[in-house]
Design brief:
alpha+beta, 168 residues, 9 strands, 4-stranded antiparallel sheet
Length: 168
Amino acid sequence: MVGCTYAAVPLYRRFCQATGYGGTVQRRETVEEKILRHAQDGTVTNREIVVRFNADVSDGMPWKFIPTQREVRVKPGESALAFYTAENLSSAPITGMSTYNVTPMKAAVYFNKIQCFCFEEQRLLPGEQIDMPVFFYIDPEFETDPRMDGINDIILSYTFFKIAEDKS
């Protein structure tokens, strides 16, 4: 049972990245390649997108996990930086790992995370609190895709899962 729990997050990550399930972004072109291509093309956008942030912890995970800000406003083609805060409320060190999704799912293909804490183990000592950055970019092609008409809000949602409990 412990082995299944430990393996669940990496397996889920691989499944989501391969299939795009749950709004997980599939990669074809790197973010750097997209930014360079649109810079060379002189792509300009006017539409403003509101990116809202959500944070959850799995059952039994004694952490407080919240977005530092509720939302940011960004135009397609721009990058933005946001922060989440995690705090270990227990009296023991705890290691956790987060998964994420982007909704609406059809907008996820345009949402590119440049730097993120997801799918990386985060170990917090008792009472420790950390800020974790998310640096992202919305592809300017978002603005010209007719399937994105009427979509002006994107939700970036993270859930932290307990990976291991240290016995020290």
